[in-house]
């Protein structure tokens, strides 16, 4: 339980913290670059960040369900915050999987082929979904970390 919770929290920090950095700091600062350079910058950022998100997801799910079944004896023994965490967590994973296999794939191909319009359209989609996942992730972390003290 101790190791699983430590890994779980670290993976959550990497995923949610990475989205916060991209969305709140890189995005406004990247405005100084011209379109093609900006698209290449985001291509480089996502190419490094997204594999780490997959690793975080793997760790979150494995450690989460390990704690749930080995620590709490299954769904019946778990508090409301754990059910909410699981629900929001699965939603975040589905959203990320969509981003990865649809707009990110198209964005990558468009940047490599120099198709700026397609690139811009797909980058905008990625931005929107990352914004949603960032919001969900912040709510999830607040619920997950405070839940055990709820009355
Ligand atoms: C989807 C399946 C998931 C399951 C089954 C799960 C399960 C758990 C369990 C059993 C705990 C311990 C709670 C306690 O003892 O009160 C926990 C804690 C936590 N989880 Fe999850 N979790 C999941 C997904 C996620 C995701 C996707 C995130 C974040 C992106 C996340 C973030 C956290 C955080 C921040 C804590 C609290 C750590 C602490 O401060 O003690 N979990 N989770």
From TrEMBL:
<feature type="transmembrane region" description="Helical">
    <location>
        <begin position="6"/>
        <end position="26"/>
    </location>
</feature>
<feature type="transmembrane region" description="Helical">
    <location>
        <begin position="80"/>
        <end position="101"/>
    </location>
</feature>
<feature type="domain" description="Copper resistance protein D">
    <location>
        <begin position="45"/>
        <end position="145"/>
    </location>
</feature>
<feature type="transmembrane region" description="Helical">
    <location>
        <begin position="129"/>
        <end position="150"/>
    </location>
</feature>
<keyword id="KW-0812">Transmembrane</keyword>
<dbReference type="InterPro" id="IPR008457">
    <property type="entry name" value="Cu-R_CopD_dom"/>
</dbReference>
<dbReference type="Pfam" id="PF05425">
    <property type="entry name" value="CopD"/>
</dbReference>
<keyword id="KW-0472">Membrane</keyword>
<dbReference type="GO" id="GO:0016020">
    <property type="term" value="C:membrane"/>
</dbReference>
<feature type="transmembrane region" description="Helical">
    <location>
        <begin position="46"/>
        <end position="68"/>
    </location>
</feature>
<protein>
    <recommendedName>
        <fullName>Copper resistance protein D domain-containing protein</fullName>
    </recommendedName>
</protein>
<keyword id="KW-1133">Transmembrane helix</keyword>
């Amino acid at each position: 339980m101790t190791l699983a919770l430590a890994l779980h929290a670290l993976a959550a920090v990497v995923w949610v913290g990475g989205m916060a950095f991209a969305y709140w700091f890189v995005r406004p600062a990247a405005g100084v670059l011209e379109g093609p350079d900006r698209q290449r910058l985001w291509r480089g950022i996502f190419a490094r960040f997204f594999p780490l998100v997959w690793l975080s997801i793997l760790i979150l799910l494995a450690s989460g369900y390990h704690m749930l079944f080995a620590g709490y004896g299954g769904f019946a023994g778990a508090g409301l915050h754990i059910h909410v965490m699981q629900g929001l967590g699965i939603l975040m994973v589905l959203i990320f999987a969509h981003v990865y296999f649809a707009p990110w794939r198209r964005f990558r191909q468009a940047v490599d082929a120099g198709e700026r319009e397609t690139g811009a359209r797909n980058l905008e989609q990625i931005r929107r979904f990352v914004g949603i996942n960032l919001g969900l992730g912040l709510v999830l972390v607040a619920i997950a970390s405070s839940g055990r003290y709820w009355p």
